[in-house]
Specification:
Length: 248
Amino acid sequence: MDPILYNAISGGRTDFKRQEITANNLANINTIGFKADLYNAQNVQFNANGNKNSSGQSYAIQQANAVDMSPGDIITTGRDLDVAVDGDGWLAVRDSQGKEAYTRNGSLRLDANGLLTTATGKPVLGDGGPISIPPAQSIEVGTDGTISIIPLEGDTKTLAVLDRIKLVHLDKNNVVKNEDGLLQLKQGKNAPADASIKLVKGALEGSNVNAIDQMVSMISAGREFESQMKILSTVDENGQKLAQLLHG
């Protein structure tokens, strides 16, 4: 394939993927605890035999998206089961595949069976696995993640401690976002609980997506994609003119 065509196709594919990622970020600008995806690619060069080297044809190979770990704004709600992580930390949950994963979405609730879950139905993990809460007069989440209740038949002034939400620290270079939009460790291991992490009660963390930055990125990727398509069109026109001259 003509090197110019090859580079234009590779560049166009890269720009199209960047637009796709940016569009998803913008779609989640109001999603609680959402962390923006960052396009991540590696420039690779090949020689005529298809082997990697430093002087051949180059193109971008997409890697797993990186994640913007910067915090979003804290939104005060006053709801008893709303919690936001104070600083660097994550809540441990169970994803749709039954594996441990991590989120900043602290909009918690109880399902029909008394299981503590996120707003999207992912079970919240405690010291011994998913946290189950029996019928109670009230439920309280402590700043350290402790889950306490006042039993239906108990003293209204006495709290019974049930469990503690598992809170963890994550290394931004050692995580990937799974199909549920949750973070997991790259090696598939589970992060250890960290007792130093604190929660803000009655609050939620908003998305960290910056609408202006994402719109600028979308426009930039769109213009670059158009440029790549113009190159393809120009090469095609030149090829047709050359063919006419050779057969004229």
